[in-house]
Amino acid sequence: MSRSPLIARTVPSLRRATDNLRKRKATIALVPTMGALHDGHVSLVRLAKRRASRVVVSIFVNPTQFAPTEDFGAYPRTWKSDIAKLAAEDVDIVWHPGVEAMYPQGFATRIVPEGPALAGLEDRFRPHFFGGVATVVGKLFTQCRPDFAIFGEKDFQQLRVVAQMARDLDLGVKVIGSRTVRERDGLAMSSRNVYLSAEERQTATVLYRAMKDSAGRIKAGEAIAPAMARGAETIEAAGFALDYFEVRHAETLAEVTSRKDGPLRILVAAKLGTTRLIDNIAV
Q: Binding residue per annotation — 39?
């Protein structure tokens, strides 16, 4: 029988709860989210439960990672269904701070990541984004003090940025990536998929098919440039406005010219109607 998680809304209440867990020698895994939970998030919780004896899920729509032109106000918020999903998974604590708890009056410190945060992918189109992500995740790590933190691979550059930050700042957290969860037709699960019209939802599967096709061509020995060019043409022909469709080194996100350059990852970002989708796969 599922039980309702403890809901903490202030740092002192969160600290009391996590301190009580540690007194019982518990290990803690954190799953950071912005809510609007779907099966992809549930998969992160299940991985967290395999890695640690207790699980904390944060739900916080972080304003500092949204530009003025982006969808902070419209970002889906589904609190009741989120809590029901987390209760069904026996999550121990939900950390649900308000903006004033995360960024109190006079807040004046930011984390400015470099390395994979400056790879020329998401940062080229959303230059504000990784500073906001690094700052809020840095705060989540110091607030929750987890042993493990679970992030989805769908936001692959974000995963690399967060892992680098945790190493560089000696935060004592092992950052673990979890495989992207997909719909049956290949579309990566995302809270933003609800913005797609029925027609756009059908078209959206082109991203995954184009990545798979380009990856297959590269594995078969075709040069990277023509293989990727063919995939980009497929995406644009379907009606997407393409931001990037690139193959990068899977660890550093450095540019590559050959399959011999190391483990490879194809990453894509494209807009369909008013909805911007991102995805990636290993080559």
A: yes
